[in-house]
Amino acid sequence: MPAFDDIPADAHVQVNYTKYDGSLHWNLRMRRLGEDAHGTWLGLPADSTICKGHSRTLALPEAHVILFPRDAWWTATFNAAPRKTEIYCDITTPPQWPSAAEVTMVDLDLDVLRHRDAPLPVLVDEDEFAEHQVHYGYPIDVIRAASQAASWLMHAIAEHSGPFDGAHEPWLAQVA
Description:
The protein is an alpha+beta fold.
């Protein structure tokens, strides 16, 4: 990861999630908020947008922050109220920083989320994960790492541990 010491805290970062074949998936520009023990935090205020691929733009009515942990197979999005999904974690390859202005990772289909009114997280898109193991030819080590990351997230979110203990709140306050 590049050194961020000389990068302004409010610098913009291009966030690129790709699929395993390298095609562009979700992508957006976010404001760099800072770093802590959990990783790098980027944020967007309410009424921002996200792109799917090269053409489809979607509105993001609520503010949110994304945590990009160091050397972990996931990213975590924390959404401001009233969005129904409070936490949405994408299982990905470990985020890579080609430069301080870009972060990229491969979306591996599995997602762990927790709704605002629910006590426990849920694992979703297992069918897509199974389908893409065949379609994209995921190696066994990628399948194993993705499954372990999903299991870890299910536990950490349920137990309110690690970055899921409210660590996102001061970061979200910067963009909400």
